[in-house]
Amino acid sequence: MAIKLENVGIAVRDLNAAIAFFTDLGLSVMGRATVSGDWTETAVGLDGNHANIVMLATPDGQGQLELFEYIHPDAIERDPVVPNEIGMHRVAFSVDDIDEALAVAARHGCYPLRGVANYEGVYKLTYVRGPSDIIVMLAQELKEEPASN
To answer: How far is Cα 117 from Cα 110, in angstroms, rounded to an integer?
Structure first.
């Protein structure tokens, strides 16, 4: 059986704010729609399912996020997740400049949970609390500088 990851779906409280955040990070909008009806009720398992959705793609075309804002039934607010909580944990992105990505996040009021870490000289990485309290990991691979002659 062949399998590939189609997308990661995330419910948000403010779809436009989430779109602004993720497009500023570099994702692009593939499409927007409002969905409802029998097929959505069956697929999602919620009576009266009705939501505004957007599909976003990473610049390399390999990753997709589906964000949805519920019209019905009402969205259920919970306390923000923490990194060791069971369930949906985070969405992670490789970036070529973590400082630039953090500046983009800050423009949306989104900041690291603690700071930027250096993982064994291989990656600089951090967890950011994004829109709708989504944990977003940003990681920059550190390139080894060529030796000088």
So the answer is: 17
Q: What's the rounded Cα separation, in Å, for the pair 111 and 107?
A: 9
The overall average pLDDT reported for the chain is: 91
Question: Is residue 148 situated within a structural domain?
Answer: no
Output DSSP code: residue 70. Answer: E
Q: For the residues 85-107, what does the mean pLDDT come to?
A: 92
Residue 149 pLDDT > 80: no
**Nearby residues of 8 by Cβ (< 8 Å), 6 or more positions away:** 63, 64, 65, 66, 91
Residue at 46 is within a domain? yes
Map tokens 């909008």 to a residue. 29
**Angle CA 76–77–82, to nearest 5:** 125
Summarised one tens digit per residue, pLDDT across range 21-67 is 999 999 999 999 999 999 999 998 999 999 999 999 999 989 999 99
CATH code assigned at 30: 3.10.180.10
Residue 134 CA to residue 114 CA, distance in Å, equals: 15
Containing domain of residue 65, as a range?
8-72
